[in-house]
Amino acid sequence: MHILETQHLCHTYKGNIDALRNISFVAPRNIRIAIIGPNGAGKSTLFKHFNGVLKPTSGKILVRGEQITKENIREVRKTIGLVFQNPDDQIFSPTVEQDVAFGPMNIGLDEESVRHRVNEALKIVGLEEYRTRVPHHLSGGEKKRVAIAGIIAMEPQVLVLDEPTAGLDPQGIREITRFIRNFSDTYGMTVIFSTHSLSLAAELADYIYVMNRGEFVAEGTVSEIFSKPDLLTSVRLDVPVLPKLISSLQNQGVNIEMGYTYDQAEKSFLKAFGKMA
After folding, report:
1. In what residue span(s) does the ABC transporter domain sit (predicted)?
2. Which DSSP string do the residues of the chain spell out, in sequence order?
3. The domain 4-222 is classified under which CATH number: 3.20.20.140, 3.40.50.300, 3.40.190.10, 3.90.1150.10?
4. Structure pTM?
């Protein structure tokens, strides 16, 4: 049984706008899944179905094998934690600590349990010293981590991140990227994230779905997806710069292994050209 699954999911907004068409998706446990696609592909709409924010026009959403209903929606939202693209849509308390505590308090946990969950969540995202700070005075990357901490405090089994690096500066992107990798590796949680940054997908994903105009047009491993530049071009995306450079060298006869992440590319270059003095 998969922890999260959709079967032929469709969603039509008012005005007969087809936002999702026949989406079938599977999320096993302990995996990082990227959903890539251009702006307007339907990624945010899909994510809002994962924990019942939106209801499908047709098709099914299964969480641990059960469809989402009014009766189980609280359990669903404890299982599937959704972090919106804009953290200001999710942060509203006067201090970081109070914001992270909001979810656990609202599921009826006692004061000691709430305090423990808040402490653990802030530790995980590296914001232990920020507990008394006003969230809206923080940087974009710090706000993202506060929003993530609020979801982590609910102890979900799946963390869903909508464009986690959108609007961040390079330092913020590095922090969020490092957090996502370390978090899933350390805690064994399924992480699903959307992005139109293929470099981010290459660095973090175990598996990728390609989305365009409300549909999945391809799925596969990082190497399977990024070895199809024509597919990516057709959905207004491009191969990340490192594999594109290596592919160009291969086409010129250079004996170099393909690499999709920074670490893979570094090893490929060192093996092909030797260490430079």
Report:
1. 4-238
2. --SEEEEEEEEEETTTEEEEEEEEEEE-SS-EEEEE--TTSSHHHHHHHHTTSS--SEEEEEETTEE--TTTHHHHHHHEEEE-SSGGGT--SSSHHHHHHHHHHHTT--HHHHHHHHHHHHHHHT-GGGTTS-GGGS-HHHHHHHHHHHHHTT--SEEEEESTTTT--HHHHHHHHHHHHHHHHHH--EEEEEES-HHHHHHH-SEEEEEETTEEEEEE-HHHHHT-HHHHHHTT----HHHHHHHHHHHTT-------SHHHHHHHHHHHH----
3. 3.40.50.300
4. 0.92
